[in-house]
Amino acid sequence: MTSTWTPSSWRNAEAKHQPSWPDQAGLDQALKQLGDMPPLVFAGEARSLTESLGSVADGDAFLLQAGDCAESFDSSADSIRDKLRVILQMAIVLTYSGGIPVVKVGRIAGQFAKPRSSPTETQGNTELPSFLGQIVNDVGFTEAERRPDPQRLLTAYHRAASTLNLLRAFTRGGYADLSQVSIWNREFVASSPAGERYMQMADEIDRALTFMSAVGVNSQTTPALHEVDFYTSHEALLLSYEEALTRQDSLTGRWYDCSAHMLWIGERTRQLDGAHVKFLQGVGNPLGCKIGPTATPEDVLALCEALNPDRVPGRLTLISRMGAEKVQTGLPPLLAAVRDSGHPVVWACDPMHGNTYTAEGGHKTRHFDKVLEEIGGFFAAHRQEETWAGGIHVELTGDSVTECVGGGDGLDEDALDQAYETMCDPRLNGRQSTDLAFRVADILRDQA
Ligand code: PEP
Ligand code: CO
In sequence order, what are the beta bridge partners of 235? Predict the structure, then answer.
């Protein structure tokens, strides 16, 4: 970062995937209003997350980053709670069965903007702007719904605020108490293999808690048993929104993007001279950057230098999303280059975005086995290069959807129609997510 950086410096670079707002005056007014709103997160929280991610970079912890592909403005409190619950369940499985501390980051409370492969969508003879996430337009295929509406920036802010408030209440107010692990299981059908395993693990945790309580350690004496550190993140795609929520920290004088704790750059906007890199260079938050199959070692090293020139452990998470077929050959040269450069990155695996395909019936889907195969390849690549496989990044929901095929219940393509609800990419449902956590925990244990 140069000393001349300001929250609006990105405007001098090319910003890909920005909407064309038809109402410039309305946009300016909405951004002005956003600029007057209170920050959603506090700079100190972002620094705590950097520190926790620093332990991941050092190989002492594991990152679980998970949540929606595109959040909805209509998410109910139950749906938000269930998403949190699934992430916490996965984290417990990884911590207990995998034997490692887990840093928990949601794709939540702000994951509203989407890059799309084409700016327009055609159905029949009608061509309309693509759906760009509810922060811009709506998913329905009518001219009115697809028209970018700047008022949505404000709605997104308020939805993020109320979601974050609920998350803070759940994670601080007792819902996340370790003694609740078996109660969280309510919606699990204990007959599923992952469900049975989960109940068995919950019983073991209950027995351990009873023992600890008998020797004087309980949630009153030890807050860690009662509360959970849970962080928010989203793709920092819509730069005018991110700029409006960027504030100078009064303690350190540094700029922080206070729309979320962690922000990431997507695969389509990681150009070194592009506006997204330019913007995120200047904020103090921990950052992510997606790394797809076309990235060269030189590209990745240049991104490390641009986004983390001071080499702060935990500042930069590289999220590889190669696809199951390419990870084994594509990832090792990147791992080796970063390792040899001495850059202290977290490497996380997004096993979703390289494994999307269209099923016979027309639904976009992902197969659980391919997701698992990419994770397997990711761990194998790290074993080969003697680097730390630091985490996973997945799209999931706590709702009982049928969007991805496979998993413990053996969902097939014919079942996709039953509850296909996503506004963008197919998500793992709660049972597939917990199933995945057990598989990853097995890999983690095997390599310990
Ligand atoms: C996403 O994470 O939803 C996404 C669009 O991913 P990518 O940038 O890796 O394609
Ligand atoms: Co997605």
Answer: 264
State if residue 266 touches ligand 1 by the CB under 6 angstroms criterion. yes
Whether residue 315 contacts residue 281, with contact meaning beta carbons closer than 8 Å, is answered with no
Residue 393, ligand 1, Cβ within 6 A? no
**pLDDT tens for residues 211-261?**
999 999 998 898 888 889 999 999 999 999 999 999 999 999 999 999 999
DSSP assignment string, 12-44: GSB-TT----S-HHHHHHHHHHHHTSPPSS-HH
DSSP per-residue codes, 169-227:
HHHHTTTT-GGGTTGGGGGS-TTSHHHHHHHHHHHHHHHHHHHHHHTT--TTT-GGGT-
Options 3.20.20.150, 3.40.50.1860, 3.40.50.720, 3.20.20.70; CATH of 9-176+227-447: 3.20.20.70
Distance 446 CA to ligand 1 centre (A): 30
Contact status, residue 259 vs residue 277, Cβ threshold 8 Å: no
Q: What separation, in Å, do the N-terminal and C-terminal C-alpha atoms of the chain show? A: 38
- CA dist 335 and 331 (Å) reads 6
Q: What letter would DSSP give residue 413?
A: G
Look up tokens 């860690």; give the residue: 224
The pLDDT assigned to 186 comes to 58
Q: Establish whether residue 290 lines the binding site of ligand 1, counting it when its CB lies within 6 angstroms of any ligand atom.
A: yes
